[in-house]
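Raw record, unedited: Flagellar hook-associated protein 1
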Amino acid sequence: MATNIFSIGQSALQAAMAAQATTSHNISNATTPGYNRQEVVQSSAGGINYGYGFVGQGAQVTQIKRIYNDFLTKQALASQSSASSLDSYYAQISQINNMVADTKAGLSPALQDFFAAIQNLASNPNTQASRQSVLSQASTLVARVSSINDQLQQSSAAVNSQITSTVTSINSYAQQIAKLNQAIVSAVGSGGGQQPNDLLDQRDQLVAELNKYVKITTVPQDSGAVSVFIGTGQSLVTGDQITQLTVTNSPTDVSRLQVGQVLPGGGTATIPDSFFYDGGSLGGLLKYRSETLDPTQNALGRIAIAMGTAFNQQQKLGLDQNGNPGTNMFNVSSPNLIGFPTNTGTTNLTTTISDPSALTTSDYTLSYDGTNYTFTRLSDNTKTVKVAGDFPVTLDGVTYSDGGTPAGAPTMASGNTYKIQPTANGATAFSLALNNTQLLATAAPISTSANATNNVNASTPATNTGNAIISNTSLDPATFKQGSSVSFTASLSGAQVQLTAAWTGAAPAPAVTFTNPDGTTGSVPAGTAFNYTPGMTISSGGVTYALTGTPSVGDQFNFAPVAANKGTATINAGSVTAPYLTTTTPLTKPTTLTYNTAAAPPAFTISPAVPAGGGTITHKDGTTTAIAGGATSLAYTAGDTYEISGVKFQISGQPSNGDQFTISANTNATSDNRNALALAGLQTANTINGTSFQGSYSQLVATIGNKTNEINVTNTAEKTRLTAIQTQQQTESGVNQDEELANMIRNQQQYQAAAKIIQAASDMINVLLTLGG
């Protein structure tokens, strides 16, 4: 029996030693990252039946248990992955937010200064100082756009660099996890199925560190190994084997790095960025690039393209200081076209920005299956399907065709796909095209006028052979009938020179009165010859003139009078629109509008007739009336706006019969500011998706600012959640020094008690030996 007691004491001593060693191990690893508290699991060693009952055999250590909560661990991994992604995203977007919203370094102050210079130019179109100011501020604006674009490109380069270092770290952790898998499998096999707790902790810690870079999913194996999957299910570690990740150039953009997978047989397969969006710093980087960086670059490019195009178009609608048509003010990019590496053959696909106001900040793809052309807007995956007969196709401000005349469908090989970036290069290519102040087109190419003075418009044909001269002309508007004309023809009656008046457009024809140099007067009916005396004064129908010299037979003296307008009607300064640049018959020949009350209803007679392209009358209530090509009469309602061959003008008020308005070419380009005012008006014009340049940039700033705040708030909440999970996890699995100290004292007491059992057994044996002796 004493021997049995000795064995019991020995088992108790061994259990106490194991417990003390485990407690000491816990204390020494209290600050070891990823360490989970361990505890000794004891059980009874059973008993021996001595007939009178079972006598216990002591204790045995069945397991060194790792205090591990798989549910909390998975929660912590998910929260940590999300927090790492948000940290990575926020670190990048906050830099862009600070840049675009900067009140000094952002685009807003440069835009304001540029348009202030344009306003000053409109006020002082003929001063070199105001012209130079516009070019200087335009240069500053271009530099500011370039500076912001450079910083965005630097951010893109930084993302590439971090992708490279992150992939290196992921591969390193994968190799370490694979080695630990191998060690754990070996330890479990050689340990009779017991778990190597410290190796498991090391592996879990590596998994947790890997999880900061990329969201992971672990699947335990019966052997003790774990398989690790990243992203949306890409295998990374299987047992002791790993899938090597690498960094590869994007197939559609060599400046853009993507994550790839090394294939077993060699080569690389590119993994879509979206596979990593669910978490980890890599996911945050890739989401930042696709959700914020790319749209920001495109938005800045869109502003540059829309502004450059709008100013170029308006410049061409004006006259520069030399009286020549305006030229481009800015250099503007065209859409970027990229063929996929799998494409075969070539294409004649051309892309042209036809409506900058309709541009989006998205990229597109165009694929062809042999019948259908499928356009995909990548920002929302919207698809638009067209067939060959639909071309040319205009989509979101970009026109697609084969570039021919007339334009048709592009030639593409079946299965080919092209990526189109309408605005990606907009900011990069944006530059100043003018460097000469005289080339700023401040004047409008047309001029309008109303008859404000009386003019007899006297003339003599080149066929006259006499030496008679017209002088002292005047016109009485009260007597003259607007639109009529008169011609006096010389003839001989014996030796006497006579004159005969012939009126056109006046019925009845007015009589002729005359005053001779000696003061005598006379009068004859229209069409009746009267004797001519050199120096006589002649009047008829409101036209008065003096004639000196001697006319020859057949000589004529013609008058096509125009009386000053009598009504209250006025014509505005007029402007031109884009069709003016392509018309072959502009209204600057000049063109005359004469009000005719005899028309039913009264209307303007236009001469020359309306060009073949016709035009439009826009009434004050917004309704329109078409003007046919070749029309010679224009209906009129006060306040009507006419647009013919790109010339736009408005007549207001009530004209009188015969009132005339003239449209002609502008010959005063130096001091005219109408096109400068139109340039200044671009500041508030809705030129980009229903908003102005400043409004579009403000939307960009607001979008980035809101996204930055959203990421920051979400990140703060996620970190709070992570801290709570980790605290709960540590409460259960972490080492509590006070608890371990108490365990150490208890183990020490157990050890001492076990020693007493052994001592008692030894004393009993000694007693038995003494009795036996």
